[in-house]
Specification:
The protein is α+β, with helices and mostly antiparallel strands and 198 residues long. Helix content is 20%, strand content 26%. It has helices at residues 16-21, 35-44, 115-119, 143-152, 159-166, and strands at 4-10, 26-28, 50-56, 62-75, 99-114, 138-141. A 6-stranded mixed β-sheet has the order 2-5-4-3-1-6. Strand 3 (50-56) and strand 4 form a beta hairpin. The two termini are 28 Å apart.
Amino acid sequence: MSRYWLFKSEAECFSYKDLENATNQTTGWDGIRNYQARNFLRDDVKHGDGVIYYHSNAEPPGMAGIAVVVEEAHPDPTQFDPKADHFDPKSDLKNPTWMQVSIKAVAPVLPEVGLPTLRLASELDGLELLKRGSRLSVHPVSPEHWKVLIRMAGFKSDPHAEWLAENGLEAISTSAKTSPKSVAKTPAKKTTKSRQKD
């Protein structure tokens, strides 16, 4: 079954609007340089998973959109690009250190739901985003928290679930790549802007 995630991006670097304007409304989630976040992307994030697109370093930071994972873990090209903000000279082409997934825009959250509002929701107790000192830019969201976030975003129904149904992906398995109903993966748009360093 599909899982749910919260991905943080600095709005001034790559906003949800930038995702909507990208080729095929799709981008590779590059620039992750935290090992725990990298491990989530490499090991746990799967095709068809739902994503809360969260604007960090904004006034206020908050939930800006809903996205879906359309390509599972593959090497982050910015680690090999000396001109990229997140170039890593220690990363080996044959055994890359840093991974990314590709996500596609599903629906914007209009208006955005700011962090102060999220903090007022007792139903979100335990959400990683709201834990003191939490700085992870990629972290899981429980199905229960996902439902609360979707409701707080003002959706009458879950746009991610609708996207899955429209694409024949109501039931997601870890073998989505070989499923006869799987949607063809959309190549990630190569961007010049990177996610926040994490």
